[in-house]
Amino acid sequence: MSNKAVNEVKDKVAIVTGAASGIGRATTELLHARGAKVVAEDINPEVEGLARPGVATLVADISQDGSAERVVALALERFGRLDILVNNAARIVYKPVVEMTREDWEWVMATNVTGAFLHSREAAKVMIPNKSGAIINVASYASYFAFPTIAAYCASKGALAQLTRTLALELAEHGIRVNAIGAGDVITNLLNDIMDDGPGFLREHGKGAPIGRAAQPEEIAEIIAFLASDRASFFVGSVVMADGGYSVQIK
Ligand SMILES: NC(=O)c1ccc[n+]([C@@H]2O[C@H](COP(=O)([O-])OP(=O)(O)OC[C@H]3O[C@@H](n4cnc5c(N)ncnc54)[C@H](O)[C@@H]3O)[C@@H](O)[C@H]2O)c1
Questions:
Q1: pTM above 0.90, yes or no
Q2: Measured between alpha carbons, how far is 114 from 213 in angstroms, rounded to an integer?
Q3: pLDDT score at 5
Q4: Does ligand 1 have an atom closer than 6 angstroms to the CB of 152?
Q5: What distance in angstroms lies between residue 208's CA and the mean position of ligand 1's atoms?
Q6: With contact defined as beta carbons under 8 Å apart, do 164 and 228 qualify?
């Protein structure tokens, strides 16, 4: 890797939501290792274990009013600026539509879409005067492709892709790039609330991709770091597929 890549986020300040686990945790570690200052936010208090010089933590539910304002204020207070927002936190409910309650639906939408909207809005307010910034949304191959029993999650990831494109159009003139990643199977804790062995399911499901395996969270973190960097200067409103080829095959 070139020195430019290693130093690409040095001294930049990032917010990462859903930082206690999986992709968010790997992203926090990678950005910090490359010299960024990170505010790591999660509803799970385990996020506090990431605190160290250069990493501040916030225990908060991203779907609740006020959490976006608090995390942006923390970035400014602790590190003096904000350059990068990674909207990564998400929830999933595993039920057929006929069994899904309004509460199930809204619980998923509140985090996966509304939380990303609120955080993007508050981050953009401080990025616009600086005429620079990068927002990266962790979307999914479920932004485009459907899976039975996770309708709310699929709808939320489709909405996140459209939020990405619309926000990219609004913010491009302010020097802020907004992009997303269409992640495929990644071995994380995402499914732990809905099955006994979530990481094991994702590992097995990933074998259906042309690449023959699921990703490690660090592989997605690399793409987030790239999209956050000036090397991605021509990416505007893209949903970059990183799914081991899952979405390009017909089976
Ligand atoms: N794992 C996969 O196969 C996969 C595939 C495609 C996309 N994704 C996306 O990757 C992102 C990260 O998920 P992951 O796979 O690392 O899962 P994960 O469960 O390991 O991590 C998600 C984190 O988000 C946090 N979180 C959930 N709701 C929150 C809320 N309301 N407020 C604050 N924090 C909240 C959780 O506590 C957890 O720490 C999600 O957007 C997910 O949809 C994952």
A1: yes
A2: 31
A3: 62
A4: no
A5: 21
A6: no
Q: Decide whether any atom of ligand 1 lies within 6 Å of the 62 Cβ.
A: yes
Q: Which residue has the tokens 């619309």?
A: 166
* 228 neighbors 31 (Cβ within 8 angstroms): yes
Mean of pLDDT over the chain: 96
Predicted confidence at residue 8, as pLDDT, reads 86
How buried is 51 (Cβ within 10 angstroms: 0-12 exposed, 13-18 middle, 19+ buried)? exposed
Ligand 1 pocket member 20 (CB < 6 A): yes
* Ligand 1 probe mutation, 185, 186, 213, most atoms within 8 A of CB: 186
Is the distance from the beta carbon of residue 12 to the nearest atom of ligand 1 less than 6 Å? no
- Residues 197 and 35: their CA atoms lie apart, in Å, by 35
Instruction: Report yes or no: 239 and 161 within 8 Å, Cβ to Cβ.
Output: yes
Give the residue-averaged pLDDT of 118-138.
Answer: 98
Query: Which residues are 186's β-sheet partners?
Result: 215
What tens digit of pLDDT does each residue of 1-14 get?
A: 555 566 789 999 99
Rounded to the nearest 10 degrees, the angle between the axes of helix 151-171 and helix 102-109 is 30
Q: Where are the alpha helices (DSSP H) in the chain?
A: 3-6, 22-33, 67-79, 102-109, 116-130, 151-171, 198-205, 217-228
Closest by CA position to 88, among listed 202, 189, 176: 189
Name the nearest CA neighbour of 40 among 73, 15, 69, 21.
Answer: 15
Domains present along the chain, CATH in parentheses: 3-186+216-241 (3.40.50.720)
Calculate how far, in angstroms, residue 153's C-alpha sits from the geometric centre of ligand 1.
11
Amino acid type, 55: V
CA of 42 to the centre of ligand 1 (A): 10
Which sequence positions are flagged as catalytic? 153
